[in-house]
Design goal:
Structural class: alpha/beta
Oligomer: single chain
Helix content: 25-40%
Low-confidence stretches: none
Order of helices and strands: EEEEEHHHHEHEHEHEHEHEHEHEEEH
Number of strands: 15
Radius of gyration: 20 Å
Number of helices: 12
Distance between the termini: 30 Å
Strand content: 15-25%
Largest sheet: 9 strands, mixed
Length: about 375
């Protein structure tokens, strides 16, 4: 079986996050920007992958078309056991263009699509190809976008808990915001605080002390730059709180540096950024070896979300799947990845990643 084509599809799905906002620097993000990658074969089996995009959609799409497609087209489709070596060769071929950022986003998409094909070829769901599923549903946490106002934060947290979410994550940088959320949800609901890399080490330690009584499960990416693992380790040791990081890390090698520095209690590989399923599995194995908990980054709605559900189904450590807290205008998967009234999402059971995308929704929200 040969790879006959690799195509990138830019899908833009508007959303409503109520009082919250989503910004990346000066750019306001008003829609979910998804680069879906379709890998076709001469056997008629199609695999779907997902490349991280947000505000770099055209750049990511170009990376798929100019770097990944020429590397992959015409090659034999690897079986499951051969995918990691196949992808390592792709990484070697493209290493001059970076093993971080957009190059790895594009590589991630190809890797996910190849695992989708491998599982479809065997006629089994992805999780069965990878191991033994320990749960058929994965609990979700509501990942709230930036709000700022403590009263509004409290209101949104209360609503999320009523909807069934079993945990809450804030994207806030003030102690009043953290305490408002804790008061709203009570002491039994896990609360996480994602800071998006704003502080120095000293500032992060002071922030950890200021909100310690609110008992956050962890502070996520409190310092700039995100790869300053020595400072992260200092914040973790002196701040008195757990520290999570990794959504901006690529490949197991960078995660090894992070973990061996003692920088994190929770590692956060993002399957559409880290290098795909192959690298994610290597990170998970390393985390287990070194006693670091896994808290994958997954605020997206393409094939990467489905892949993350499969990967989390293999674990019985009560790890959550991250879900952006918003109402989106369309679903690529026929509404089958929505959170139920108990705050859970069903693990797909169909072959491959489990579902085929809704082609009508793709056309409706396609960016030409």
């Amino acid at each position: 079986m040969l790879i006959t084509d690799v195509r990138a599809h830019h899908i833009r799905i508007p959303y409503d996050a109520g009082v919250a906002s989503f910004r990346q620097g000066a750019s306001s993000i008003a829609a979910l920007e998804i680069i879906m990658v379709e890998v076709s074969t001469d056997a008629g089996i199609t695999g779907w992958g997902d490349a991280f995009a947000y505000v770099c959609t055209q750049t990511t799409r170009t990376a798929v078309e100019e770097m990944i497609a020429p590397q992959a087209k015409g090659l034999g489709v690897p079986d499951a056991a051969s995918i990691p070596a196949f992808m390592e060769q792709i990484q070697r071929n493209l290493h001059l263009f970076g093993r971080y950022g957009v190059t790895m986003y594009a590589i991630s998409a190809l890797d996910i699509a190849l695992w989708d094909i491998a599982a479809k070829t065997r006629g089994v769901p992805l999780h069965r190809l990878l191991g033994t599923a320990k749960r058929a549903k994965v609990p979700a946490y509501a990942s709230l976008l930036r709000i700022g106002n403590p009263d509004l934060i409290a209101r949104e947290c209360e609503t999320a808990v009523r909807l069934g979410y079993k945990a809450i994550k804030l994207h806030e940088t003030t102690a009043p915001a953290v305490f408002a959320a804790r008061k709203a949800i009570g002491r039994d609901i896990p609360l996480m605080v994602d800071m998006n890399c704003p502080l120095t080490g000293e500032e992060a330690i002071a922030f950890a002390h200021s909100c310690r009584d609110a008992a956050p499960l962890f502070l996520e990416e409190p310092v700039w730059p995100p790869e300053d693992f020595a400072t992260l380790a200092e914040v973790r040791s002196k701040g008195g709180l757990n520290v999570a990081a990794g959504e901006n890390a690529c490949t197991v090698h960078q995660f090894r540096q992070m973990m061996e520095a003692g920088a994190v209690s929770h590692a956060q590989p993002s399957v559409i950024k880290v290098g795909g399923i192959s690298e994610y599995l290597a990170v998970a194995a390393l985390a287990d070896e070194l006693g670091v908990r896994l808290a994958p980054h997954s605020p997206y709605f393409g094939p990467g979300l489905l892949a993350t559900l499969h990967l989390l189904s293999l674990r019985d450590d009560a790890s959550f799947v991250e879900m952006f807290y918003m109402k989106r205008a369309g679903c690529l998967w026929h509404g089958r990845v929505d959170v139920d009234g108990n705050g859970d999402i069903e693990v797909p059971q169909g072959p491959g990643i489990g579902y085929e995308p809704d082609l009508d929704v793709m056309e409706q929200f396609r960016v030409s």
